[in-house]
Amino acid sequence: MLEVQNLSMRFGGLLAVDQVSLDVQEQEIVSIIGPNGAGKTTVFNCMSGFYKPTGGKIIFKGKEIQGRPDYKISRLGMVRTFQHVRLFTRLSVVENLLVAQHRHLNTNMLAGLIGTRNYREREQRALDRAAYWLERVGLLELANRDAGNLAYGQQRRLEIARCMVTEPSLLMLDEPAAGLNPAETKELNQLIVSLKEAYNVSVVLIEHDMSLVMDISDRINVISQGCPLASGTPEEIRQNDDVIKAYLGEA
Amino acid sequence: MQDLLYFSQQLINGLTIGSAYALIAIGYTMVYGIIGMINFAHGEIYMIGAYTALIAITGMTALGLAWLPLILLVALICAMIVSSSMGWAVERVAYRPVRGRHRLIPLISAIGMSIFLQNYVHLAQGSRNVGFPALIEGGFTFGSGEAFQMSLSYMQITIFITTLICMTVLSMFISRSRTGRACRAVSQDLGMASLLGIDTNRIISVTFVIGAALAAVAGLLLGMYYGSVDPLFGFIAGLKAFTAAVLGGIGSIPGAMLGGLILGVSESMTSSYLSGEYKDVVSFGLLILILLFKPTGLLGKPEVEKI
Q1: What is the DSSP letter of A30?
Q2: Does residue A35 belong to any structural domain of this protein?
Q3: Does residue A199 belong to the interface with chain B, where contact is any CB pair within 8 Å?
Q4: Are A130 and A251 members of one domain?
Q5: How far apart are CA B218 and CA B167, in angstroms?
Q6: Is residue B298 part of a domain?
Q7: Is residue B175 one of the residues assigned to a domain?
Q8: Confidence grade of residue A107 (pLDDT, cut at 50, 70, 90)
Q9: Same domain? A120 vs A71
Q10: Does B194 contact chain A (CB < 8 Å)?
Q11: Structural domain includes residue B133
């Protein structure tokens, strides 16, 4: 469903990403790993429309999307999270999920003032979906708390729920386990796998936590200093000499 | 008794003018809250609202309409429509094309817009001040028999009640409606809101329109209260309302309300107990003090820089 062909991104004299290619099939978890500064997040930023890539193609559901504005890409069903949590901290937990469904809602202000039936029905549906996802990520009893007051692990899960209420077909997670303790990482692990199986979502994952990557990935792409280094199943990557060198240094 | 009556009178006068400041200040604070920019043409939008209301009133009186509530309602609606479209147009012409550039650029373009609108009204309506009919006359007096009598005019009551209604509707809109919710989200993280598929341009337009509509309400009310308007009518009021917004904490809507009231009361107290000439000294002195000691304002939240 997603195909990235020879993606390059140059900032002035620095070639941050050089000819990276990857593809994601339906219901697949694909990880991007690499040492710090390898250009993983830059690849993400190009894919989600934050940067306009200087070379290469990104094809999502048969459409070339490189260089399109971010809100248009997200409307095609591709949503992402960031390395640091970016919730609306002064909105309540449930409001965070309602705002994410804004474009599915009837936003006619007049209808809102009068409170027409259609308006209330849609609001109710949005609320139901929000409640469903809150239950799913175990935050239902905290629904009216300000999102900024949640514990860090809860904020991470809320962020994933906020992506899921938009009913995406591709979820891009940038270091979702960063800052989580081992127990929380394990929960996250199960959550991601269940998303793929139950909701027909493909996942692209950037992660440093190797246990998470090796456990749940169907395929792994390794990049180093902006260049593709290897790609394959977790087993193949584990035994790849280049990868071991890149991570441990030349012996 | 005498002193108490005098004090209450100043308090009433201060709260009257303060609630009108608060109405104008909402426009500054909402726009700042969303795009982090001061809309310096906002005072002019308010002035245009006052002129539109005056033109509507004059027109209706010429047509022989005499029923006061209808005249006021039509004048209010006309003023709100014209000011709102003006607010919308100003955003499209002067702010959207330069959004995302260096902070100084939209500032200059806002000041340019303000000068343009002021001079446009100079040309179209003349530079002399025009009398504004006092449609709501009379009131209550308290303390008969004393040397000083306290008065509470119907006009002042109208200003309080209208402001109260506007503020209530606005608070409900912001806290309950979908668009209000989206406004809050956009003001917290515009990039993220856009990524979630919210049409941020539309939300920004909505903010300008709401601010302008409230300024038009203030324009009609203060036009009647002062009894005259001129093309510079919006300049000082705009500065005062901006001060009120900063005082209360720019970006915070309850802050703008509180800031307006505090500013109005302190002005009226200064002019009566000190001297009318010190009025502006005190209000802008307050602005300087607040910027020195509590830059986020009374109810403002500190900007947390995330790294």
Answers
A1: E
A2: yes
A3: no
A4: no
A5: 12
A6: no
A7: yes
A8: low
A9: no
A10: yes
A11: no
Question: Is A230 in a helix, a strand, or coil?
Answer: strand
- Domains held by chain B: number: 1
Q: Are residues A160 and A213 in the same domain?
A: no
The CATH number for A231's domain is: 3.40.50.300
Looking at the complex, does the CB of residue A23 fall below 8 Å from at least one CB of chain B?
no
Structurally, chain A folds into a number of domains equal to 2
Compute φ and ψ for B298, nearest 5 degrees. Answer: -65, -45
Look up the domain containing B53 and give its range.
Answer: 13-127+153-293
Residue type, B6: Y
Tell me how far apart the alpha carbons of residues A32 and B243 are, in angstroms, rounded to a whole number.
Answer: 51
Is B238 among the domain residues?
yes
- Give the domain range for residue A65: 1-77+168-251
Most B CBs within 10 Å: which of A99, A160, A174, as the mutation test of the B interface?
A99
Residues facing residue B139 across a β-bridge: B153
B296-307 pLDDT, tens digit each:
888 877 655 443
**How many residues does this entry show for chain A?**
251
Measured CA to CA, the distance from residue A22 to residue A28 in angstroms comes to 13
CB atoms inside a 10 Å sphere around CB B266:
18
Helix, strand or coil for residue A10?
A: strand
Give the closest-approach CA distance of A234 to chain B in angstroms.
Answer: 31
**Rounded to the nearest 10 degrees, what angle do helices A93-100 and A117-136 cross at?**
120
Token pair 């009566």 is found at B272
Q: E strands of chain A, at which residues?
A: 2-11, 14-24, 29-33, 55-60, 63-64, 78-80, 170-174, 202-206, 219-224, 227-232
Instruction: Give a yes or no: residue A10 inside a domain.
Output: yes
For B188, which of A90, A102, A112 is closest by C-beta distance? A90
Assess if residue A82 is contained within a domain.
no
A129 and A20 share one domain:
no
Q: Is A172 in the same domain as A155?
A: no
Q: How would DSSP label each residue in A107-134?
A: --HHHHHHT-HHHHHHHHHHHHHHHHHH
Cα B299 from Cα B258, distance rounded (Å): 9
Rounded to a whole number of angstroms, the distance from the CA of B182 to the nearest CA of chain A is 6
Is position A209 within any domain? Answer: yes
The dihedral built from the CA positions of residue A114, B157, B259 and B8, taken in this order, carries a sign that is: negative
CA atoms of B33 and B184, how far apart (whole Å): 9
Helical axes A152-164 vs A182-199, angle rounded to 10°: 10
B175 touches chain A (CB under 8 A): no
- On whether the pTM is more than 0.90, the answer is no
Question: Domain check: are A43 and A22 in the same one?
Answer: yes
Domain edge (last residue) among A148, A166, A184: A166
Instruction: Answer yes or no: is pLDDT of A26 > 90.
Output: no
Asked whether A8 and A15 are in contact (CB, 8 A), the reply is yes
Does the distance separating the beta carbons of A89 and B197 come in below 8 Å? no
pLDDT digits (tens, 9 = 90+) for B203-216: 999 999 999 999 99
